[in-house]
Amino acid sequence: MSNQEANNTLASYWQQQIQAWEASDQSQTAFCRSNELSYHRFGYWRRKFLQPVDQQSSPGTPGFVPVAVRSHALTSGLSLTLPSGLILQGITTDNLPLVDQLLERLS
């Protein structure tokens, strides 16, 4: 049996279990206990089936998603000139802890 066939068989099994649970009047925990199913695995497959198809990853699909990055111009924020001539630019509330760590190391 190929990996794809095994995956399809497993998915079919869990789809049947979830349909049986939906038809029952039991909670998920009670259903899993009475059918000797792993509650965590049941929850995993239930969430997987609830996801839209376009959000489900398939083998060979890269796991990358678009990320929006806020760009900060170097002229934005404060700048700090140290007695040594070193200038720290672009100090904002977002990077203040980093600036504090730098100053602690330099002193």
List keywords for this structure.
107 residues, 8% strand, elongated, mainly alpha
What does this structure look like?
The protein has a two-stranded antiparallel ribbon. A hairpin with a 5-residue loop joins strand 1 (78-81) and strand 2 (87-91). The protein has 2 domains: 3-55; 73-107, no CATH class. Helix 1 crosses helix 3. The protein has 4 helices and 2 strands; from the N terminus they run αααββα. The model has no long low-confidence stretch (mean pLDDT 82). With 107 residues, the chain is mainly alpha-helical.
Overall 3D geometry? elongated
Give the SSE string.
Answer: HHHEEH
What fraction of residues sit in β-strands? 5-15%
- What's the total helix number? 4
Instruction: Provide the number of structural domains.
Output: 2
C-alpha termini separation: 65 Å
Specify the biggest β-sheet.
2 strands, antiparallel
Give the helix/strand class: mainly alpha
Pick out the low-confidence regions. none
The level of helicity is: 40-55%
Number of strand elements:
2
- Please state the CA-atom Rg, rounded to the nearest Å: 27 Å
Kindly report the average pLDDT value.
82
Q: Please give the order of strands in the largest beta sheet.
A: 1-2
Q: What's the short version?
A:
By secondary structure, the chain is mainly alpha-helical. The protein has four helices and two strands. A hairpin with a 5-residue loop joins strand 1 and strand 2 (87-91).
